[in-house]
Write a structure and sequence with these properties.
InterPro entries: His_Pase_superF_clade-1 (IPR013078), His_PPase_superfam (IPR029033), Mito_Ser/Thr_phosphatase (IPR051021). The chain is an alpha/beta fold. The chain is built from 5 helices and 6 strands, in the order H-E-H-E-H-E-H-E-H-E-E. The radius of gyration is 20 Å and the shape is globular.
Length: 226
């Protein structure tokens, strides 16, 4: 419901003519800028940790984050912000990446935490969370999509470049939703640690996927999916 026409009160009419001044009011709500969304999967982390605070990045994971940060910096873009999951592995990945992007503000959010977005179709045998987890995590991850993935605000004059550091399930679900693909297919996508996924949102609301899970900037022996 971010289509400009949906933001206008159609009941409000011109007092003199009695006609709706739709055309002139539409311009006030139309987006002018393009949003570039860079979705970064966290680096490799310690799978043996029981609690989130123990699931810290491995030495290889820290190397991966350095490579990702260097790659983002090499693009020569003026990044507006880094929004990251509040989970330890995403926070640590963000801290390393941000060293390569000095001055870019960092924002932590619980919305981007890892979870089970929606029951996958086709189902898989190796991953079957409790049904309640889909209800709990799914609503939150859908809220993250609606909150962060949308056309630019009408007041935004210049194109923006934003980084989101989070998790494979979250990124895969967001990509399916953004491209208007059946979200149940999210588990068919695969993402490496430290990978870059680039979404472009045009002023008219149309979305393009520039890259999905790019790790071509990493040496082959540094690439993992754990």
């Amino acid at each position: 419901r971010r289509e400009p026409l949906a933001l206008i009160n159609l009941k409000k009419k011109n007092e003199e003519t009695g006609e709706e001044e739709i055309a002139s009011r539409l311009d006030h709500y139309k987006a002018k800028a393009t949003r570039h969304i860079f979705l970064i999967r966290h680096s490799q982390y310690n799978l043996d940790g029981r609690a989130d605070k123990d699931r810290t990045l491995t030495p290889l994971g820290r190397e991966q984050a350095e490579l990702t940060g260097h790659r983002l910096a090499s693009l020569g873009l003026k990044f507006d912000q880094i929004i990251h999951s509040s989970m330890t592995r995403a926070t640590e990945t963000t801290e390393i990446i941000s060293k390569h992007l000095p001055g870019v503000k960092k924002i932590s959010t619980d919305l981007l935490r890892e979870g089970a977005p929606i029951e996958p179709d086709p189902p898989v045998s190796h991953w079957k969370p409790e049904a309640v987890q889909y209800y709990e995590d799914g609503a939150r991850i859908e809220a993250a999509f609606r909150n962060f993935i949308h056309r630019a605000d009408a007041k935004q004059e210049e194109d923006s470049y934003e980084i989101f550091v989070c998790h494979a399930n979250v990124i895969r679900y967001i990509v399916c939703r953004a491209l208007q693909f059946p979200p149940e297919g999210w588990l068919r996508l695969s993402l490496n640690n430290g990978s870059i996924t680039h979404l472009v949102i045009r002023p008219n609301g149309r979305v393009a996927l520039r890259t999905l899970g790019d790790t071509g900037f990493m040496p082959p022996d540094k690439i993992t999916r754990t």
